[in-house]
Predict the structure.
Amino acid sequence: MLTFIGLGLYDERSITVEGAETLRSADHVFAEWYTSRLVGADVADLEAYHDVDIEVRPREGVEQDPEAILAAAESGDAVFLTAGDTMISTTHTDLRLRAEDRGIDTRVIHGVTAQSAASSLTGLQNYRFGKAVTLPFPYAHGGDDVPASVIETIEANRERGLHTVVYLDIKVGTGPSGPDPDHEEYMTAEYAASLLAAGWADELAVVVARAGSPDAVVAADRLSALATREFGEPLHLLVIPGDLHHVEADALAGLADAPEALL
């Protein structure tokens, strides 16, 4: 059996009760930390709290060489951990399909996602979000600006009146010069706002920082204004609103201090 468990957003306690019980009873526990991470806990915290040993797999150890995970699932109960909700990334779907192809039973125990938390924290209604997009570091796509695909996605959502979640790039094990096992870099909301402000300086955007933590921050303003502020420790994301329902406008004013002129 291979069980995929989402850890939620903040620390070792954010996992569901069902997830915690399954984790503690597993024969083997694997995790990846390259698509996302917990804000308030590291692997050692998880191991101590849940009394388990966790093998952290690098990207290539999940996507290219998952044999250790699959073999453990064939011979016993294996768990695969990720931050947030475990099946958001296609790399995890691929691993599940590989397991199914080998006749291994699989199961998913969900966790809170950054997108659902962003909707809850900002007051923007979940059904009014369009396609999400990831904003990469310029060095990661060989450019010095925002990729056309990001701009096109935001514009397409805006034309339909929909909000856009902009996930911010995470680089673990790879830096500007290539593979680097010690490199760990998280794009900040202020940096992301500065990139997007080149084309949309006066457009309304919302920062969500450390969703799920006790000190989560939600701030709405022009992209050019957000680019001048600091929002602290990761993880951050941006939301580019589309058309606002009057309740959403009230929420951004009351929960995110959005300037009235932008609503």
Summary: The chain is about 35% helix and 25% strand. The chain has a mean pLDDT of 94.
